[in-house]
Amino acid sequence: MTQETFDVTIIGAGAVGTALARELTRYQLDVLVLEASDDVAAGATRANSGIVHGGYAAKAGTRKAEFCRPGNRMFPRLAAELDFPYRATGSVVLCFSEGDEAALERLYANGVSNGVDDLELCSRDETLRRIPRLNPAEVHGGLFCAGAGIVSPYEYAIAMMENAIVNGARLRLESPVTALSHIGERIALEAGGREYSTRILVNAAGVGAEGVAALAGSPPFRMKPRKGQYILLRRGTAEGLDTVVFQPPNENGKGILVTPTTWGNLMLGPDAQEIQDQSDTGTDPESLARIIRTARRSVKDFDVKQAIRVFSGTRPAADRGDFIIEWSETIPGMLHMAGIESPGLTASPALALEAVRLLGEAGLSLRKRPDFQPLRRAPTRPAPLGPPAQAAKRAQLPEGDPERIVCRCEQVSEATVRDALERGIPLRSTDGVKRRTRAGMGACQGAFCGPRVRKLVADFGGIDADNVLGPSRNRDRIKADLDATRCLLDGGNTHDS
Ligand SMILES: Cc1cc2nc3c(=O)[nH]c(=O)nc-3n(C[C@H](O)[C@H](O)[C@H](O)COP(=O)(O)OP(=O)(O)OC[C@H]3O[C@@H](n4cnc5c(N)ncnc54)[C@H](O)[C@@H]3O)c2cc1C
User: Fold this and answer.
1) The CA-based dihedral angle spanning residues 395, 396, 399, 405, taken in that order and rounded to the nearest 10 degrees
2) Catalytic one among 53, 140, 182, 336?
3) What's the CATH code of the domain at 9?
4) CATH number, domain containing residue 285
5) pLDDT tens for each residue of 247-306
6) Pocket of ligand 1 contains residue 336 by CB under 6 Å
7) Residue 112 is part of which domain span?
8) What is the pTM of this model?
């Protein structure tokens, strides 16, 4: 088998791996990203809160604190260059009683130690004045952070990878790394039936990082994955709430939040459950009902009947409780970037800079490429939602007409889907198209558009429609969980505004 040779190989195309790939393409290096799944952003980067954290929460002196604020500061420019959905909304941590005030003051002081200079402690009246949708019966005060924001996390990683590819990086999907060894000055790898040789190897495999480390001997850390469940309400439900709303932190982390998404949905969650099975992406009605009840303490006037999806994400937490950025002791040239739990999405662009610094320090030649292209070609996005009748009419247009509506709920045209297919990352699933175009994100969750998208993916890739992967979560299962959750809540009377 011929061996392909690279300067740097990154295992894992999540927020960390894709941000690093893009950063490395600024230099004259051959860069490869190996991803186990059929798409980028397949792990924690796919299912999280999408908050660009302000930087006050991570304990001063930790690596999380070191990289959160600098990462946060990079987002406006990155969003401008790479055209992914991001908005500087600010955030608030609420307190519900006098007893909580001390917790907010501690957060404030921690934030100041972390160099966060846009924090403000506000009274009950001021907090309610700023965010009228908050629950007046519960809110006692708030800690505002002006620099926090929201991002579409998978669109961020997709944008990073697309731009890295334009700048010369290679991406191999469906390529789980299964073996690695050290040979002289280089590392040999096996992934997806191919062999590779690389000078530097970066382990950015999320919850899989321990498994990758174990390929090189006894792993220096253990993963302790924690699942978090979410409820997503339909588009438009975030109207009047343009701030991320946290509750006072507890032993499980930042607590349940209520947040707008970049697309105008309201999102509730996450809880925190330690799990043994890393592939457990399930949800359960009891947890979902608990999340909804808890979220109502912050924002009372949401209608659970507007919920369209439930899902969970798994935090790639490690046993050290902090980001692990260190060289392997068993394989020279292998850098672990592991335990990247929250605020890892926020920190990821700053972590990429740190990794480049470490690689340079280790002797990797960092000569700038004069032709680095920082701008990503803007993706074709669905137009703002118009009258449903018009969309239904356009849905009747023949296949091949760019104006044909493929997804009625989100009014996604065929031109938008075709553009997603042509952007450099090979797509083999309807979910891949969904994450890039929103086809399948609406109320019917792909019941209408699924077959249309499947056909377009198959035709574009020259593959059989049966080989196009379907939704990662079963629609009936989501509906059953939602129905059972509604039943658990107030005997089905879920709208108590
Ligand atoms: C519930 C929840 C809420 C969160 N909220 C926030 C938030 O609001 N803000 C924030 O900043 N952070 C948040 N985070 C944290 C953030 O999502 C993570 O820090 C970040 O996504 C980690 O990125 P990563 O690239 O390290 O890992 P991942 O995104 O998990 O990527 C790792 C990739 O490696 C691949 N892989 C695994 N094993 C192999 C192998 N052997 N070979 C090849 N590929 C492999 C996986 O398929 C995966 O695609 C949250 C996380 C969760 C779960």
Assistant:
1) -10
2) 53
3) 3.50.50.60
4) 3.30.9.10
5) 998 777 778 999 999 999 999 999 999 998 888 889 999 999 999 999 999 999 999 999
6) no
7) 88-148+224-315
8) 0.96
